[in-house]
Design goal:
Largest sheet: 5 strands, antiparallel
Order of helices and strands: HHEEEEEEEEEEE
Oligomer: single chain
Number of helices: 2
Shape: elongated
Number of strands: 11
Radius of gyration: 27 Å
């Protein structure tokens, strides 16, 4: 088949003027996008935190849930949170047992050396929201039974928000 015959065959096919390339986003579009456009919320698991990323928000919301944390006569610390880039954060504590629990918020500059920021006794069946009074990079919660040999079960919610 000659070249001209091949060209004429190609011309007989209907042509579509559809671009297959994806449209390019301009640099301006990237600059207008808020710095944090995800919501993060963990799935609830027994005592272990996990995270789910949900698309589409103008601010960031983070939640870590520790369900069924057991108190004892000795202190036990929950995992530390890096709060250096958060605008607002709160610990919500629900005492699911009958016995009171002592709860401390501790802060640290290096995740090694901790100082007590505030502490509260949470009675059985009570819910309280605790907010640190001072700022350092790391924050954690320490739980303990008020009375020896009277453990209780706590549900702890760390909720934080970062504004753009």
């Amino acid at each position: 088949m000659s070249r001209t015959a091949k060209r004429s065959k190609k011309r007989l096919r209907p042509t579509k003027y559809v671009s297959r390339r994806r449209p390019r986003r301009s640099c301006r579009a990237k600059l207008l996008k808020p710095p944090c456009s995800r919501i993060t919320r963990p799935r609830v698991k027994q005592g272990l935190p996990s995270r789910t990323i949900l698309p589409g928000a103008t601010h960031c919301f983070t939640e870590h849930t520790y369900v069924g944390a057991e108190t004892s006569s000795s202190t036990s610390a929950l995992p530390a949170q890096d709060t250096s880039s958060l605008s607002l954060y709160t610990y919500g504590i629900v005492n699911r047992g009958k016995n009171p629990a002592l709860v401390q918020i501790q802060i640290s500059p290096n995740a090694v050396d901790y100082a007590v920021d505030s502490q509260e006794v949470i009675e059985g069946g009570q819910t309280k929201a605790l907010v640190p009074q001072r700022f350092l990079r790391y924050t954690r919660l320490v739980i303990q039974s008020v009375e020896p040999d009277q453990p209780t079960r706590l549900d702890v919610f760390f909720q934080a928000q970062r504004m753009p």
